[in-house]
Amino acid sequence: MKKFFALAFAVWLPVAAAQEVRTWTSASGKTLEAAFVELKYDQVVLQLPNGEKMKIRLNQLSSADQIYVGNRDRAGIAPGVAAAPAAEAEVPPALEALFGKRLVNAKGKKVSAATLAGKKIGIYFSASWCPPCRAFTPQLVAAYRQLQTEGQPFEVVLVPSDQTEAAMEKYMKDHDMPWLAVPFGDKHVQALKEKFAVAGIPKLVVVDAQGQTLSAEARGEVAAQGAAAYAGW
Questions:
Q1: What is the CATH number of the domain that holds 151?
Q2: What CA–CA distances, in Å, run from 61 to 35, 56, 81?
Q3: Residues 187 and 135 in one domain
Q4: What is the dihedral of CA 207, 202, 152, 53, to 10 degrees?
Q5: Do 118 and 162 fall into the same domain?
Q6: Which candidate, 43, 209, 24, places its Cα nearest to that of 35?
Q7: Which bin fits 167, alpha (ψ -120 to 50), beta or left (φ > 0)?
Q8: Range with lowest mean pLDDT among 14-28, 123-137, 204-218
């Protein structure tokens, strides 16, 4: 069985009827293919394709997965029944102004910017062709993963400066970036660079959920303090 995250554990139960298999993402960015069975208190029961079932704490899932579970649980959808398409959460105006309505992950899948709501956001200006970027990215990934493990409401959004979409996607995959990115070629890429006066990369700016700047020099803070820099934002 795949290791999803530490607080998950497996149980063997009778195999239920065929269910909707989807990709689940943990708060640390790891993924797993499984079907939703039920929510018991704060435990989400999932069924793997081989019939094995596992329980996972709700707060250890990504924001999007928590919304998915909540929609199914509130609707009382039984195992084996596909959920009706849920109304997508509205993107707060301040976040839409910064990023638009859609971001992408390292697999190129579109994700609603609503997943950033209520969080501090590191806007990361970077590119694969930039040596200082390639040196700093692993430090940021490590800090991000630690903050996710601690349950801190923090996200990162990559603002790419690569020359092609393929280069951007390879950069995200090669460095195992667990966060989202502004789509390649999107108008918000240039708008963000202008708004935050980006003259060189890498640059990390931290803003709050209303788009107000908390730190314009977060790159140096993360390089010096790692995840501990979060306390100062």
A1: 3.40.30.10
A2: 14, 8, 22
A3: yes
A4: 130
A5: yes
A6: 24
A7: alpha
A8: 14-28
What's the 3-state SS for the chain? CCCCCCCCEEECCCCCCCCCEEEEEECCCCEEEEEEEEEECCEEEEECCCCCEEEEEHHHECHHHHHHHHHHHHHCCCCCCCCCCCCCCCCCHHHHHHHCCEEECCCCCEEEHHHHCCCEEEEEEECCCCHHHHHHHHHHHHHHHHHHHCCCCEEEEEEECCCCHHHHHHHHHHCCCCCEECCCCCHHHHHHHHHCCCCCCCEEEEECCCCCEEECCHHHHHHHHHHHHHHHC
What CATH number has the domain bearing residue 67?
A: 2.30.30.700
Contact of 226 with 149, CB cutoff 8 Å: no
Residue with tokens 């509130």: 74
* pLDDT tens per residue, range 10-59: 444 343 343 578 888 887 778 888 888 887 766 788 888 888 888 888 87
Q: Return d(Cα 187, Cα 99) in angstroms, integer.
A: 9
Using a pLDDT cut of 70, give the percent of the chain over it. Answer: 83
Structure tokens given for 29: 């960015």
User: Quick one: 79 exposed, middle or buried, by C-beta within 10 A (0-12, 13-18, 19+)?
Assistant: middle
192: tokens are 């963000």
Tokens of 26: 């943990």
By residue range, what is the domain housing residue 52? 9-75
15 with 52: CB under 8 angstroms? no
